[in-house]
From TrEMBL:
Membrane topology annotation: Multi-pass membrane protein
Entry annotated with the keyword Transcription: no
Lineage, broadest ranks: Bacteria, Bacillati, Bacillota, Bacilli, Bacillales
Record field: transmembrane: 14-34, 39-59, 65-86, 98-121, 141-165, 227-248, 254-271
InterPro entries: ABC_BtuC-like, ABC_TroCD
Similarity-based family: Belongs to the ABC-3 integral membrane protein family.
Listed name of the protein: Metal ABC transporter permease
A Pfam family recorded for this sequence: ABC-3
PANTHER family reported in the protein's UniProt record: ABC-TRANSPORTER METAL-BINDING PROTEIN, METAL ABC TRANSPORTER PERMEASE
UniProt organism field: Planococcus versutus
Swiss-Prot/TrEMBL keywords: Membrane, Transmembrane, Transmembrane helix, Transport
Subcellular location: Cell membrane; Membrane
GO cellular component, one term: ATP-binding cassette (ABC) transporter complex
UniProt record, GO biological process: response to zinc ion; transmembrane transport
Length: 284
């Protein structure tokens, strides 16, 4: 496997992009889970699907767009979806959760329309839906690296503000923090991560990488920073194990990555139950 990585550029691209995603997806996912916004990742992933399907359709219909990387339109669609979610949340102040199913439904609807209009890109679409080791180009890797820089700069700059907003939104607003603006930027960064991760994990599974490693880490950690660190560790283990499995068994990497992350979650749950039962036995 190591020799193959040094031999084939597509494997270098896939593993480099996977390692980057294994950091930024769980890192952002910690804030998403704590703020109870997990379903927003699903909504934006379906909007991204519409952008990808639309881009593939345009590349068939317009000759000048034949070489357009679908990732660009996917990013545009994802960011647009995040902006629309925030707009709808402000319109339905007492029913903010309505924004998520509205945008999710719109993404599925437009995606279905573009898929039905286009012909002959089922293989390309399958790669975007569930990830593909061989489809990650050097351009895709550079885009993922760019997204990672944006995410890391944003988290480093607004870590304290995000921490306060995550645990006490009312206090953050009362203390004068620009909560609305920070949340808006957070949504855009989330959209960028989802769009950037789809080549490896797949559009339909990317939200899993942002939430399952966090859920696993929360079972064994006692502080917010520990949760971040362990979430990234579990994310990296899932990505690397999933990519190796996908390469050897010719499987969709998105599926192997998610199944690995679920397996880790189950292991941690069983481990915690064993430890709790031992403590109870020792007390008895």
């Amino acid at each position: 496997m190591i020799e193959a990585i040094f031999t084939y550029e597509f494997l270098q691209n896939a593993f480099a992009a996977g390692i980057i995603i294994g950091v930024i997806a769980p890192l952002l996912g910690v804030f998403i889970v704590v703020r109870r916004l997990s379903l927003i990742a699903d909504a934006l992933s379906h909007v991204t699907l519409a952008g990808i399907a639309g881009s593939l359709y345009l590349s068939q219909s317009v000759a000048s767009l034949a070489l357009l990387n679908p990732l660009f339109l996917g990013i545009v669609a994802s960011v647009t979806g995040s902006v629309l979610i925030e707009r709808l949340r402000s319109l339905y102040k007492h029913y903010e959760e309505l924004a998520i199913p509205i945008i999710l439904s719109a993404g599925i609807g437009f995606g279905a329309i573009f898929i039905s209009l286009a012909e002959g890109f089922s293989n390309d679409l399958f790669g975007y839906l569930f990830g593909s080791v061989s489809a990650v180009s050097r351009e895709d890797l550079l885009i993922v690296a760019g997204v990672a820089v944006v995410v890391l700069v944003f988290i480093a700059t607004f870590f304290k503000e995000l921490f306060v907003l995550s645990f006490d939104d009312e206090y953050a607003r009362a203390s004068g923090l620009p909560a609305k603006w920070i949340h808006f930027m957070f949504m855009i960064v989330t959209a960028l991560v989802i769009a950037g991760s789809m080549r490896i994990v797949g559009i339909l599974l990317v939200s899993s990488l942002m939430t399952i490693p966090v859920a696993t880490a929360m079972r064994v950690t006692k502080s917010f920073k520990q949760t971040i660190i362990l979430s990234i560790v579990f994310g990296e283990v899932s990505v690397i194990t999933g990519l190796v499995s996908a390469f050897y068994f010719d499987l969709a990497p998105g599926g192997t990555i998610v199944v690995t992350s679920i397996f880790l979650l189950l292991l941690v749950i069983v481990y915690k139950k064993i430890m709790v039962s031992r403590k109870k036995g020792a007390i008895a």
